[in-house]
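Reminder: ligand-aware prediction takes two inputs, not one.
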Amino acid sequence: MMQQEGKATFNIGHSFYRPSSQLSRDLGVLAAAVYKQQTGELRVLDAMTGCGVRILRYALEAGADYLWANDGNPEGHYTLRQNLAPVLESDRYQITHEPATRVFLQCALDRDYYDLIDIDAFGSPADLITPSLQALKYGGLLYLTSTDGRIVSGHFPQESLRLYGAYARSHPSVQEQALRILIGAIAQQTAAQHCSLQPVFSLYSGQTYRVMVRVFPKAFNLAKFNRFLGYCSQCGHYETLDWRYLSRAHCDNHNPPQPMSVSGPLWVGALHDRAFLQSMANLAQTWHWQKVAALLEVMQAEANLPPYYFPLGEIGRRGKLDIPPRDRLIQALINAGYVATNTHLDPQAIKTNASLKICVDIARSLTESGL
Ligand SMILES: [Zn+2]
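Here is what comes back for the chain with zinc ion:
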């Protein structure tokens, strides 16, 4: 049966296709289109292409001018070739069936670098980070997927260390921790190659984590961006910690101060690039993608806030309050001089530069004033 997504019409055949992850493909296409507008070029390598829907959309909607569709499984070749037929008229493409690592290393040997590398892996992409960087053009976009939520949400801290070089702990804002551990791992690998990165956007949707980063040929101070996150299970307080102060990772809301659980090192820089998101949002408006434009607005608001969020249930539980209405609490925090917003990471949570204690106090005053 033929499927339709964006401008792509395609057959799934025996490959894996989830209609619910369209949002991640929409964002990828928008970012690719903005990149093409800015640089005039867009060579795309889709390392795990499946039935080819992503690369077809990069071609039809973002104007990709060279396509490399690779999938480790050759059984999908006929379906893939049929799906890509509308964009295979020129010789500006190749279809291969190799392990992704082999493709990246071949690119490096041939000095054949790509503007956008999309890796929609199942499980962890950790082993593909370094090889994919070898195939990426300077200034190019690397778009990674992780579906191993159980590892980065703190259930298997030693597995998290093995894959990402960081300990994950369990606490209320684990979806953000998952994204930041993944970015932190890419940042470390990037820094090891005397390069730097900037996250373009970070998406948590449908139990899947997707991170797009831009890599630049300029060394950066990794210690400024890959830091630790402390969480006090007694009162819910969060703190970003420098490695120098790990021995003092105690929550001062208690007498004596109580030890915090520490995760990381993880990325504590911006979660998204606001300027790039604005360009994506402008394009989304032009294309009448209202839902995506609304998401991009939320992402811009949350981009530069501290590396954690507060679920409303947590605020209610800690303050022994009824759960406050989200938008009223956000407005009250803004009125009190803080930055506060809803977050795409959890519809029932807020991101703010106010501490949990302040959120609880303000939520209580809302409850008491009958608002
Ligand atoms: Zn505490």
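The chain has a mean pLDDT of 95. DSSP finds 14 helices and 17 strands in the chain. We will return to this case in the review session.
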